[in-house]
Design a protein that fits this description.
Blueprint: E1 2-4, E2 7-11, H1 17-26, H2 36-43, E3 49-55, E4 61-69, E5 74-81, H3 90-103, E6 110-112, H4 122-127
Parallel strand pairs: 5-6
Antiparallel strand pairs: 1-2, 2-3, 3-4, 4-5
Bound molecules: coenzyme A.
Length: 142
């Protein structure tokens, strides 16, 4: 457990589910093809992945990141800070917590994807030392 200024960061537990999903929805991170329940089930508390939550002093789950690695690269998903908790360094702290989770497992590089509809957030990551990379991401539903 890691406590930053006014934020306690810890792994997701079962009682967080409703709050985490509400946070993701409120932050616009859930699109119709996402199933946040299934995403949590696959990622939380696994050997290669987890969901970390940030709890504000009022006991509210107001911050999140989903983190994992595939044996080669690490990935961050669902970086989210509740609207009324933004601008206090919680986003920075949670990205750092995700990076530390990966570093502790020997993963040398972290990546994340930003939707085309959310390019404004690039400057947030750039300010934390992340670089944009010229890659084409492809997908296929299995
Ligand atoms: C992006 C987000 C996580 C930032 O959270 P936050 O708690 O407000 O960020 P912090 O307070 O830790 O900000 C850290 C730094 O980034 C800057 N920053 C924050 N949001 C920014 C933005 N949208 N654009 C540019 N810079 C930003 C802050 O000014 C701060 O800079 P400083 O350290 O020089 O003062 C939050 O706005 C959010 O949840 N957005 C909606 C969900 C989302 O888009 N997630 C990313 C999906 S890829």
């Amino acid at each position: 457990m890691d406590t930053t200024e006014s934020l306690t960061i810890r792994p997701f537990d079962a009682g967080d589910r409703a709050a985490v999903i509400a946070l993701w929805r409120a932050c616009g991170l859930v699109v119709p093809h996402n199933d946040p329940d299934a995403d949590i089930d696959r990622a939380a508390g696994r050997a290669n992945s987890d969901v970390l939550v940030g709890v504000t002093p009022d006991g509210r789950v107001a911050v999140s990141v989903m983190v994992g690695h595939d044996g080669h690269r690490g990935w961050l998903y669902y970086v989210a800070v509740a609207q009324d908790a933004r601008g206090r360094g919680h986003g920075r702290a949670m990205v750092a917590a995700g990076e530390e989770w990966l570093r502790a497992r020997g993963v040398p590089k972290a990546q994340l994807m930003i939707r085309d509809t959310n390019t404004a957030v690039r400057d947030f990551y750039a300010g934390l030392g992340w670089d944009a990379v010229p890659r084409t991401v492809m997908e296929r539903w299995l």
